[in-house]
Design goal:
Layout (H helix, E strand, L loop, with lengths): L10 E3 L2 E3 L6 E5 L7 H14 L3 E5 L3 H4 L2 H10 L6 E5 L3 H7 L1 H6 L2 E4 L7 H17 L3 E7 L5 H13 L6 H22 L7 E6 L3 H13 L6 E2 L5 E2 H17 L5 E2 L3 E2 L8 H12 L8 E4 L10 H23 L7 E5 L5 H7 L2 E4 L8 E6 L2 E7 L3 H17 L18
């Protein structure tokens, strides 16, 4: 059973809806120089093709701001409608004022209250950005970060805590300051004329337990959609594990409406890994489906051959590569499950449970591989061409079951909503 979603306002961002009545949205961010319009547009398209439904770009300088409209135009010419989110720090109000095409081309603004400015001047800057968003009917994410918290707010709350009869630990006060910053900024935005259904909040930290605590508290105190993610997840398995540990807990409790996995890419690797990880977290939790999943055993002394490992890898890569075409041609195929098993212990059972599965021979077993389709044994493969033959069976299964008139073609999905 899927977790009940926390009830929120619904925020419309171009063709997307963010909030409890819509699926959790996958977001990512470019790491190109935004002033390089071609490189940035190409990376946005790459992230979009990998499955990112919104892409954030850095808007930090006049050179960057002057290229945003061109980036949007290039994407439109490529047939890529993915909404662009402008990431503003320190000088956002000036860039929006000087480059109105930038203000119009972006679908959403990300504003960090801790980096807008101090005192009355900071209030003026914040007000200008919010009024600009309202004028252009843009959504805003008010994104508070542990590392750039409004120091005047933090000092005010720390002083009040020290003066109280039962002071809390400084760490607890700082976490409360994150939440207060987000909520107070959201209320200011509403007072300035930005509708509640144009506001998304986030309170990011880098520690898993702190993130869970902050978002539980924040979610209980407002009805705004929440964007989830660790501020800096890290590189490789560390970043993947930390992100999964934090986000899985929150989403199981119905908290979270957009997610981003802030992985540090390995040198020379694609930025798209963070998108794949986000999708796989959502899919393995049963919250969304993006691409057919492959069940494969880890291997043991019964599977000294690497055949099942190679076939599992090749099948997973094949399925992901096919999805840009399959998602429109074969709706529902993203929910298909394929099993590639390595020996007779669990192979037949797991293969029967999958939509389509193959049980390859383990060490010392008869060199045959039964293939199961919807729980029934369909054919037995043997010889050196088993991988190609199995791929052909998978393709035939997709065409038959998810093509026009197929019995598994996509049906409407119902997302449970938690009562207010």
């Amino acid at each position: 059973m899927k977790p009940l979603r926390r009830r929120t306002h619904q925020v419309r961002i171009d063709h997307l809806t963010v909030g409890s009545e819509a699926p959790v949205v996958v977001q990512s961010m470019t790491n190109t120089d935004t002033a390089d319009a071609q490189a940035t547009a190409l990376q946005v398209r790459e992230l979009s093709e990998a499955g990112s439904e919104m892409v954030r770009i850095t808007v930090n300088s006049p050179d960057a701001a002057s290229k945003v409209a061109e980036i949007r135009s290039r994407l439109d010419d490529m047939g890529c409608p993915t909404p662009l989110v402008g990431d503003f720090h320190f000088n956002g109000e000036r860039l929006l004022a000087e480059f109105p095409d930038c203000a119009r081309a972006l679908s959403k603004y990300r504003i960090n209250p801790g980096n807008v400015g101090k005192g009355a001047k900071g209030d003026e800057k914040f007000a200008f950005m919010i009024r600009t968003a309202a004028e252009h009917d843009k959504a805003v994410r008010i994104g508070v970060n542990w590392g750039s918290l409004d120091q005047s707010l933090a000092k005010r709350m720390m002083d009040a805590n020290l003066a109280s009869a039962n002071p809390r630990q400084p760490e607890e006060v700082m976490k409360e300051a994150l939440i207060v910053s987000a909520l107070e900024s959201a209320q200011k935005a509403v007072d300035l004329g930005l509708p509640e259904d144009k506001i998304i909040l986030s309170c990011k930290v880098s520690n898993v337990q702190d993130l869970i605590q902050v978002y539980r508290d924040l979610g209980s105190r407002c009805a705004y959609p929440l964007h989830l993610g660790l501020t800096e997840a890290g590189m490789g398995s560390k970043g993947i594990v930390a992100s999964t540990a934090a986000l899985a807990v929150l989403m199981q409790e119905g908290i979270g409406d957009t997610i981003r996995i802030s992985l540090t890419p390995e040198p020379g690797t694609s930025r798209t890994q963070e998108v794949v990880v986000a999708q796989e977290i959502l899919q393995t939790m049963g919250l969304r489906s993006f691409t057919p999943m492959v069940t494969a055993c880890p291997g043991c002394g019964r599977t000294s051959s690497t055949v099942f490992q190679e076939l599992a890898r090749d099948i997973q890569q094949y399925l992901r590569m096919q999805m840009p075409v399959w998602k429109d041609k074969y709706p529902g195929v993203e929910s298909m499950n394929v099993a590639v098993m390595g020996c007779v212990v669990n192979g037949p059972g797991e293969s029967k449970l999958a939509d389509i599965g193959i049980s390859l021979p383990g060490t010392g077993e008869t060199p045959i591989a039964p293939v199961y389709v919807d729980g029934e044994r369909k054919v037995t493969l043997k010889g050196d061409n088993m991988a190609a033959e199995f791929l052909a069976i998978v393709q035939e299964y997709v065409e038959t079951n998810y093509g026009e008139g197929g019995k598994k073609r996509n049906a409407p999905r119902v997302i449970p909503i938690q009562a207010a």
